[in-house]
Amino acid sequence: MVFSSILFLFYFLPISLILYFLIPKRFRNLALFILSLVFYGWGEPRYIVLMIFSTVVDYSAGIVIDYYDKKIYEPGRKLGLLFSVFINLGLLSFFKYGDFFIQNLNSGLNLNLPLLNVALPIGISFYTFQAMSYTIDVYRKEVPVQKNIISFGTYVTLFPQLIAGPIVRYKTVAFEIDNRRESFEGISEGIKRFIIGLSKKVLLANNIRLLWESVKMMEISSIPTFTAILGIVAFSFQIYFDFSGYSDMAIGLGKIFGFNFLENFNYPYMSKSITEFWRRWHISLGTWFKEYVYIPMGGNRVNRIKTLRNILIVWMLTGIWHGASWNFLFWGLYFGVIIIFEKLFLLRILEKLPTILRRVYTLFLVVISWVIFSFEDMSLMVEYLKRLFGIGGNLFDDTTIYLFYTNIFLIIILSIASTDIFKNLYNNIKLKWDKVYILEDIALTTLLIMSIAYLVDMTYNPFLYFRF
């Protein structure tokens, strides 16, 4: 089940809200837990057992860590932590990377081992990292142990951000799990945020997707350079508005239920360096790797060689987290190498350049990265990069002109919407006119109606990050 669907908007969500707000507060975590399992099980019923198993494992690990903490017995505490990490990473490795490992083993050693052919549980990368953050935080004594398994299950399975993030670390919502207060203000803000996210996904991401798919279906080795540019620019917009739209909807739903999830995007395409880009893009993932991998390895508190090693390891893991394919590993290393160069000397050079040049530099490298990201077939990736840089073939043809004219208006809208222009304009109007909420309500209602109208006609409406 996806947020941008008639089923969710007109059936699941209204029923969930009615049940949630009608029952006494002491039962609301139980209601959310059950509703979240139904939400997840709608598309993956057999993997509900896997999620419940993961929940029980991490709940038990927390209890073990707390028990031995009171006994002042460090080996016992470590045993609880290692139990959680081993089971979680073991499940993630089996389901997500098992066939990848076997395929490469067969290829490298000329074997013929059978593939596992197991379906990837939706969102396993997200809820696995989320669950591990709890046991690590308990082990570090940053949060108290959660002794109510229903409350803990609510945290792990919470449907607003269950299958595509943002990754919510336990310590950011530990208090709200059992002590949150729903309010009309929160519900109002949540509805606004949800509508904005829905509009991003349905009106922007889904429409520019058509351009990218048109280009990707062509014979890559013979497409004109400007067609290749149009295509990857379209994908750059699609992945941003798709994922940030989902994050907006998740944050909005969280507010409705009394949770305050941290932001996951902050206008990343306005960045002036790759280092800054990754402070603005998928913030929850970057924060997770920083908190639980980079800093424990020493971060930048060690010598320069070890610091650079730590950066490369984190970015290798960041890449492979996105998928069991070599292109994702190269994608992570691509950013890791650039960030190392920026850390060593590039940032000092960039700081002397005009802002516009710094943004051009960043966008150029980010767009190239999306070519690596989008093609799991390495030969196609290389061919696309060749066409992108004008190696062989034509600059443009009649199809290029057609695609440009039929999408230029949408591209202009996407370009503006990916900056903070609308946000600043709204804030300026708000300062001068205290009844700006009238325009806001009209705009949001219009966006909602348009989004629903599009959904009625759409037959293909996936979120890109579901597969991660």
UniProtKB/TrEMBL annotation:
* Acyltransferase keyword on record: yes
Instruction: Read off the InterPro entries from this record.
Output: Ac/AlaTfrase_AlgI/DltB, AlgI, MB_O-acyltransferase, MBOAT_fam
Per the record, its GO cellular-component terms are: plasma membrane
Signal peptide coordinates? none
Q: Which UniProt keywords apply?
A: Acyltransferase, Cell membrane, Membrane, Transferase, Transmembrane, Transmembrane helix
Keyword check for Repressor = no
EC number(s) reported in the record: 2.3.1.-
Annotated family: Belongs to the membrane-bound acyltransferase family.
By what name is this protein known? Peptidoglycan O-acetyltransferase
Provide the species name.
Tissierella creatinophila DSM 6911
